[in-house]
Amino acid sequence: MELLKKRIREEGIVLNNRVLKVDGFLNHQIDPQLFKAIGKEIADRYRDAGVQRIVTIEASGIALALMAALELDVPLVFARKKKSILMVDDVYHSVVYSYTKEENYDITISKKFLPAGEKVLIIDDFLASGEAAMGLAKLVQDAGDTVVGMAIAIEKSFQPGRERLENAGYRVESLVRIKEFKDNGCVFIED
User: Where is xanthine bound in this sequence (predicted)?
Assistant: First the structure.
């Protein structure tokens, strides 16, 4: 997606050739027009997959997933990283490791928001090791649903996430794929 690549080139900051900081437009401050375009692109890629629900993880995935949910006219549910005292009913549970936070998270989704028998699209902002996506897939499968694919805004292709997800049988659609960080900048895999 050229628009997203352009924003990464102009505003993204690569720290120590390790982490891409996109908080000015993607995961702290949100550019609504960019997110509208991202939502449409994700929806276009999965329009024929029969998506009935979208699942993401709080917090950065929510705005991306919401825009795709609007385009596909389906509900969106997000996994919480900490169980709320208001979640008194049964939940689906998984543990994921955050590469950027360097810690494990217990993620949960209330069972009443993930009914069995649906086709579910998983959306997230980044793909690195595939931990978050695999954790979300576990929740979806525990609910008796089918994962129709994973939509990712930015993929770090030099990390094992895509391979891990594809080896598990999942369709992966990334809007931007980064081949490597070099001289504190991004080298993209071209479409």
Answer: 20, 27, 156
The answer to whether 4 is a known ligand-binding residue is no
The answer to whether the CB of 95 falls within 8 A of the CB of 135 is yes
User: Is 72 part of any known ligand binding site?
Assistant: no
Q: Which residue from 154, 149, 159, 102 is spatially nearest to 128, judged by alpha carbons?
A: 159
40 in a labelled binding site: no
Q: What is the pTM of this model?
A: 0.93
Task: Tell whether residue 20 is among the known ligand binding residues.
Answer: yes
What pLDDT shows up at residue 100? 67
Per residue in 61-100, pLDDT tens?
899 999 999 999 999 999 998 766 555 568 898 888 876 6
Question: Residue 147 and residue 160: Cα distance in Å, rounded?
Answer: 20
- Is 168 within any annotated ligand binding site? no
| Residue 129 annotated as binding site | yes
Is 128 flagged in the annotation as binding?
yes
